[in-house]
């Protein structure tokens, strides 16, 4: 999570800065009317829904995936390398259908040149379309002498959720059943959180590098990898109690609405714990202004974005109190349930 940059609707911003218009011959209208809008997700029958939720393992999410991430892990630190290797190992353990890559690069930062590495996991890379889930794996660097910053919500919980979701869904098992040639991809990056001032030249290193690389990597039918991304779902700052999450983009509003509907359905079925209202997290309403984050380099290249970030940010944001103790486990597990059903329906897994 970063500074609040925009509270205006994105449309005005896009028009002023020409976002989405930098893709040469590909008209923006074509990009935004691509399959994320025409794809029709079907609601899972209740028996399938319950069976899928059974595949989630709250202890695995917390003990196996989340706790190893709760170390100081700014880029270049031993903790960062350890976390990156942990993610890589867990993603490789998903099975042979997954291609796991470390995307290493160096970039010039205000502190001098630094080495970075993103982790990219793609199931069936040859599939024509991808649903891409993303979060940052590093923690923000604070000046020497500052208390340790563990970034439990920022973004250890999102990383653990991404691991648990693919593990529970095991989309590989459903290879023959995935509809419309869609597959799943997960991106974990080192963003390097604004060592000095947040700004376009000192932020989002991993996302900027990866967006550029994917734009230059050929894919099917004369397209690039970035054009294969049907929708890009960014998770950030999740794990505190009862986050208020809003829709940020008109072109993904129907998908945001599905999250809201799934939340309501699970609530009515009694499948969410410590969940006060039918719709506690995914608040319907007109698109809220964009919040600057790692999706920006993808947004600028015309990729439809679903940005799952609470507004306001958690109270512990960028403080030493962003720790495991201040997480709200029922919220984390509820989010894992809602997102599991969302992904299963999007991917057509039954
Ligand atoms: Zn942050």
Automatic annotation (TrEMBL):
Coiled coil residues, start to end: none
Chain ranges of the Peptidase M28 domain: 118-339
Example of a GO cellular component annotation carried by this entry: extracellular region
Superkingdom classification of source: Eukaryota
Keywords: Acyltransferase, Disulfide bond, Metal-binding, Secreted, Transferase, Zinc
Keyword Disulfide bond: yes
A Pfam family that the UniProt record links to this protein: Peptidase_M28
Signal peptide: none
Protein name: Glutaminyl-peptide cyclotransferase
Phylogenetic lineage: Eukaryota, Metazoa, Chordata, Craniata, Vertebrata
């Amino acid at each position: 999570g970063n500074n609040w940059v925009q509270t205006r609707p994105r449309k005005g911003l896009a028009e002023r800065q020409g976002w989405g218009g930098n893709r040469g011959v590909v008209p923006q209208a074509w990009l935004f009317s691509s399959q994320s809008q025409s794809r029709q997700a079907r609601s899972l029958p209740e028996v399938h829904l319950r069976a899928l939720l059974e595949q989630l393992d709250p202890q695995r999410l917390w003990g196996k995936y989340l706790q190893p991430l709760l170390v100081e892990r700014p880029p270049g630190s031993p903790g960062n390398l350890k976390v990156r290797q942990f993610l890589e190992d867990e993603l490789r353990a998903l099975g042979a259908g997954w291609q796991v890559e470390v995307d290493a690069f160096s970039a010039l930062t205000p502190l001098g040149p630094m080495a970075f590495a993103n982790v990219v996991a793609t199931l069936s890379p040859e599939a024509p379309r991808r649903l891409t889930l993303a979060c940052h794996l590093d923690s923000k660097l604070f000046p020497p002498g500052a208390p340790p910053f563990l970034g439990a919500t920022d973004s250890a919980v999102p990383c653990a959720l991404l691991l648990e979701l693919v593990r529970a869904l095991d989309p590989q098992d459903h290879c023959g059943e995935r509809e419309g040639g869609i597959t799943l991809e997960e991106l974990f990056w080192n963003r390097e959180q604004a060592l000095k001032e947040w700004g376009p030249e000192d932020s989002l290193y991993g996302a900027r590098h990866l967006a550029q690389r994917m734009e230059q990597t050929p894919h099917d039918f004369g397209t690039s990898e970035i054009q294969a991304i049907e929708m890009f779902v960014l998770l950030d700052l999740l794990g505190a109690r009862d986050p208020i999450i809003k829709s940020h983009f008109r072109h993904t509003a129907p998908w945001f609405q599905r999250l809201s509907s799934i939340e309501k359905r699970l609530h009515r079925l009694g499948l969410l714990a410590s969940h006060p209202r039918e719709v506690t997290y995914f608040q319907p309403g007109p698109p809220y202004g964009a919040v600057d984050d790692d999706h920006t380099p993808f947004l600028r290249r015309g990729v439809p974005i679903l940005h799952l970030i609470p507004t306001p940010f958690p109270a512990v944001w960028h403080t030493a109190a962003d720790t495991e103790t201040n997480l709200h486990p029922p919220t984390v597990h509820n989010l894992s349930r809602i997102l599991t059903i969302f992904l299963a329906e999007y991917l057509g897994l039954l």
